[in-house]
Design a protein that fits this description.
This protein is α/β, with parallel strands linked by helices. Among the domains are: about 230 residues, Glycoside hydrolase family 3 C-terminal domain (Rossmann fold); about 110 residues, Immunoglobulins (Immunoglobulin-like, Sandwich); about 80 residues, no CATH class. It has 23 helices and 24 strands. The strands form six sheets. It has a six-stranded mixed sheet with strand order 8-13-12-11-9-10, sandwiched between helices. Bound molecules: beta-D-glucopyranose. Beta-D-glucopyranose binds next to loops.
Length: about 750
């Protein structure tokens, strides 16, 4: 096998940027072949003619699976793995080494134009689903490219903006999905994002690309730039950006050579990056080419299954769905005939075929369905189209209205400015409902839309963007051929003004401040007690599930095993997504009321009970402690909630967990509260405090309150109203300054010494 040592400096530098838009450079002399790395993520976009990263030019036909917005809603890493395997097979047939995906950026604002390519507003969920997908792809010898690392949560100014994020949200929210996938699935490559993270371009960020990604998380693959993300190539090599894509026409290769020759770049860093490219090339050489050509039908069937699993039934008053047999159906809305099934930009692929709801309905119920487009995609109201649709609704038993966002409304490259549906569609809906209250709305949208009709239309189906089989999958759900089981992986708010990043999105003057901190998505709405249209985790089925009392046990690894009996008490077989949220009311840090820590999508036959056991990793209970720059599990009681959504908690149990020793050394700056909480300094401080407050039992005070922290400890040590206040007040005094208040210097020195041992 060729190693970096076998190559000249020029050859090594040549490996560090693309040969063209989609391939790496070959070095024939040394037997190094070129490899191909096209998009991704929900289908293969292999271009054989003109290349681009905006979805402009054609690519060869490939199966268009549901984009992440859909697949994420299935809440099922196993399903994601099945799709990943299919993506791997299609890529392997086409000699693709790495498929560019999945994307695990957090949906920080519903306005982000690329939310359809991301799984969730929750990092645990995104990390779990993406882990399944990466494992699936890589099991077929095709590498994944986990993207876009990091804090790429908007499209506005995406190639320059600085995402200004505090350490806790960065670690607890924006890094966590990446960390999970890196640790659990070892993606072959990670793609750095375009933007800056706290002022430094991701593509030249040593802390991000080396300290965190490799040294902390153990990533041993290759870091590739997003297409055109390189700002300063030499800085990038030093930071840990191995491969620049696409080609720089040799310009940056020459810069690397010149920097080495000029003494500005250590050649060992070039070797390091070149070796990683060689390792990737070697790894991809083991890929087995599948026999025969693509089984279009089998993959279309999987796309249909995945799409049906992605649909979220938001509302179903009076069990309007599934549609009873023998009804005459008015099918309304251009989306039923011209489906929107994927988003715009680099992920836009050429499908092998496309199912429309109109055709699929006709196949399912024959001439019981009649169609009227109702509106056009240009948003211009059409009186004649509207009148025709309303009349159709009136003259049929039920109206099924397809509404949504047209292509022009959302895409990679720009953000939306509103979460409203086009006004002409809402007007049409109002008239349809008046003509026929038995109305079902089916939505086609990549980003969340507000639903002013959430309380008036009896049935609402969130159909997201579902891939090429979305049309048939939706009809499967509407007719009951498939059962809905998808859940919201993002909150549907009432108003844009309620959303966490409102006022801090998309930033200004080159900076976007993540001012909502850790309270992203449902964390925010729960923290503020805000009403939402539909909460995170919500989704109805055609049956009902009862939950038993949950139990929780600390397992051998210090995590939690949570078990609950779930019974299908309804008339049909179905699938329930059991969710575990963990919260902690008393904490040293500001926490959201609940955070998703485990979930499982389980099939349960009507009348059957299943015991569902979910595991919460100990590391997922930790918060990022900025004092010691690492994750710390706090000692104490945690609330474990088991439910069918973040706002449909069916059972609650508490558990006591041993904490990590944060190993904080006390200094003169430490507050008296921190000193009191310290295992060694605390008892001595309490004793002194009790004496200071005139407690005759000062001798015992040291032992009495050992397990308590901070101000509370001070308060307990000194019973009596006035004294308690003094204890509370003093908790925030820096211990070094207590000398001014009569504490002998030796006592202070002793406390600090104890606090450092
Ligand atoms: C996108 C990436 C994509 C790349 C190649 C970029 O514009 O941000 O997600 O993989 O183009 O098409």
């Amino acid at each position: 096998m060729t190693t970096a040592r076998d190559l000249t400096l020029e050859e090594k530098a040549s490996l560090l940027s693309g040969k063209d838009f989609w391939t790496t450079k070959n070095i024939d002399r040394a037997g190094v072949p070129s490899i191909m790395m096209p998009d991704g993520p929900h289908g293969l976009r292999k271009q054989t003619g003109s290349s681009d990263n905006l979805g402009i030019n054609d690519s060869i036909p490939a199966t268009c699976f549901p984009p992440a917005v859909g697949l994420g809603s299935a809440f099922d890493p196993e399903l994601a793995a099945k799709v990943g395997i299919a993506l791997g097979v299609e890529s392997a047939i086409e000699d693709v080494a790495v498929l560019l995906g999945p994307g695990v950026n957090i949906k920080r604002s519903p306005l982000c134009g690329r939310n359809f390519e991301y799984f969730s507003e929750d990092p645990h969920h995104a990390g779990e689903v993406a882990t399944g997908m990466v494992r699936g792809m890589q099991s077929r010898g095709v590498g994944a490219s986990l993207k876009h690392f990091a804090a790429n949560n908007q499209e506005t100014d995406r190639m320059r903006v600085s995402a200004d994020v505090d350490p806790r949200p960065l670690r607890e929210i924006y890094f966590r999905a990446f960390e999970r996938v890196v640790k659990n699935a070892q993606p072959w490559t990670v793609m750095c994002s375009y933007n800056k993270v706290n002022g430094t371009y991701a593509s030249e960020h040593p802390w991000l690309l080396t300290d965190v990604l490799r040294d902390e998380w153990g990533f041993d693959g290759l870091v590739v730039s997003d297409w055109g993300a390189v700002n300063d190539r030499v800085k990038g090599v030093a930071a840990g950006l191995d491969l620049e894509m696409p080609s720089s026409d040799g310009v940056t290769d020459a810069q690397i050579v010149a920097a080495v020759r000029g003494g500005d770049l250590d050649e060992a860093l070039v070797d390091r990056a070149a070796q990683r490219v060689l390792d990737l090339v070697e790894k991809s050489g083991h890929r087995e080419k599948p026999d025969g050509s693509l089984n279009v039908d089998a993959h279309h069937a999987l796309a249909r299954e995945a799409a049906a699993r992605s649909v979220v039934l938001l509302r179903n008053e009076g069990s309007l769905l599934p549609l009873a047999e023998g009804q005459d159906i008015a099918l309304i809305g251009e989306f039923a005939r011209t489906p929107r099934y994927q988003g715009g930009g680099s992920s836009h692929i050429t499908p092998t075929r496309v199912d429309t709801a109109l055709d699929s309905f006709t196949q399912a119920v024959g001439d019981r369905v009649s169609f009227a487009p109702g509106f056009t995609f240009d948003g211009e109201p059409s009186a004649s189209l509207r009148a025709e649709a309303v009349e159709l609704a009136r003259s049929n038993d039920v109206a099924v209205v397809f509404l949504g966002l047209p292509d022009a409304a959302e895409s990679e490259g720009f953000d939306r400015t509103t979460i409203d549906l086009p006004a002409d569609q809402i007007e049409l809906l109002d008239e349809v409902v008046e003509a026929n209250p038995r109305t079902v709305v089916v939505l086609s949208n990549g980003g969340v839309v507000s639903l002013p009709f959430a309380d008036t239309v009896p049935a609402i189906v969130e159909g997201w963007l579902l891939g090429q089989a979305g049309g048939s999958a939706i009809v499967d759900i509407l007719t009951g051929a498939s059962d809905p089981s998808g859940r919201l992986s993002e909150t549907i708010p009432h108003r844009l003004e309620d959303t966490p990043s409102y006022g801090n999105f998309p930033g200004e003057l080159g900076h976007v401040r993540y001012g909502e901190g850790v309270h992203v998505g449902y964390r925010w709405y729960d923290k503020r007690g805000l009403e939402v249209a539909f909460p995170f985790g919500h989704g109805l089925t055609y049956t009902d599930f009862d939950y038993g009392e949950p139990t929780v046990q600390v397992n051998a690894r210090g995590g939690l095993d949570v078990s609950v009996d779930v019974t299908n008490v309804g008339p049909r077989d179905g699938r329930e997504v059991v969710q575990v949220y963990v919260g902690r009311d008393e904490s040293a840090v500001d926490r959201s009321p609940r955070e998703l820590k485990a979930f499982s999508s389980v099939e349960i036959a009507s009348g059957q009970t299943r015991r569902v056991t979910l595991t919460v990793d100990r590391s997922d209970l930790a918060y990022w402690d900025i004092r010691v720059d690492r994750f710390v599990v706090e000692e104490g009681t945690y609330r474990v909630e088991v439910g069918a959504s973040s706002r449909d908690i069916r059972g609650e149990v508490s558990v006591s967990i041993d904490g990590d020793d944060p190993d904080i050394e006390l200094t003169r700056e430490a507050s008296l509260g921190e000193v009191l909480a310290h295992p060694k300094a605390g008892p001595v401080a309490r004793q002194w405090l009790a004496g200071f407050m005139g407690d005759p039992d000062a001798e015992d005070a040291g032992q009495k309150t050992e397990s308590q922290t901070g101000a509370a400890a001070g308060a307990e040590a000194s019973p009596g109203g006035e004294q308690t206040d003094i204890g509370m007040m003093m908790a925030s005094f820096p211990v070094g300054r207590l000398v001014s208040f009569g504490v002998p210097q030796e006592k202070v020195d002793e406390l600090i010494r104890l606090g450092q041992s």
